[in-house]
């Protein structure tokens, strides 16, 4: 019985937070977004990552940016740099992101890497928690479909976005 009460309180709190957010200006036509994400260097992405195994250290750094061509829909691009333990690569990303209900971003993009000439089709979905009118934290799940005979990869990400 107690677990049902806890679940009810959590759902009520979540819905109250969701309804209290007003991010209509941030996601309106003509707005800009700059975003940084956590991720994995192995996918040729535009995120921040650091990993070390057997004396090899891999790291990446990158940013995404976008322009809202209509309310809730941004066209995005990103650039990144990867150091894969001696092999350098640049990565790029082009795609679109739509905010369902102004809070649930879903995106599709093409990501490529110059170092290993691998390409991915990325599918991503998450939740945009607006901590201020123009700042959001975006936990998300992503699946990268390998386009060059490589396996797909599932990721959990955390994004940080600024809207102008």
Describe this structure in words.
An 8-stranded antiparallel β-barrel has the order 1-3-4-5-6-7-9-10. It is mainly beta and 164 residues long. It has one domain: Beta Barrel (Porin). Helix content is 12%, strand content 59%. It has 1 helix and 10 strands; from the N terminus they run H-E-E-E-E-E-E-E-E-E-E.
What's the topology here?
Blueprint: H1 2-20, E1 32-37, E2 49-53, E3 56-70, E4 73-84, E5 88-100, E6 104-113, E7 119-126, E8 129-132, E9 135-146, E10 153-163
CATH top-level class:
Mainly Beta
Largest sheet: 8 strands, antiparallel, barrel
Mean model confidence by pLDDT: 83
Terminal-residue CA separation: 46 Å
Domain count: 1
Shape: globular
| Overall helicity | 10-25%
In short:
The protein is mainly beta and 164 residues long.
Short descriptors:
164 residues; mainly beta; Porin; 8-stranded antiparallel beta barrel; 1 helix
């Amino acid at each position: 019985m107690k677990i049902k009460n806890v679940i009810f309180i959590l759902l009520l709190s979540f819905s109250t937070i969701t309804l209290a957010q007003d991010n209509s200006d941030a996601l309106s036509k003509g707005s800009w977004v700059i975003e940084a994400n956590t991720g994995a260097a192995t996918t040729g992405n535009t995120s921040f990552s650091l990993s070390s195994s057997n004396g090899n250290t891999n790291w990446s750094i990158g940013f995404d940016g976008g322009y809202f061509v209509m309310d809730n829909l941004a066209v995005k691009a990103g650039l990144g740099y990867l150091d894969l333990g001696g092999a350098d690569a640049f990565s790029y990303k082009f795609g679109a992101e739509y905010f369902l209900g102004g809070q649930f971003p879903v995106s599709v993009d093409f990501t490529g890497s110059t170092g290993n000439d691998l390409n991915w089709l990325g599918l991503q979905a998450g939740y945009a928690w607006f901590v201020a009118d123009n700042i959001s934290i975006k936990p998300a799940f992503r699946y990268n479909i390998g386009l060059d005979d490589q396996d797909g990869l599932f990721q959990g990400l955390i994004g940080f976005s600024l809207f102008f």
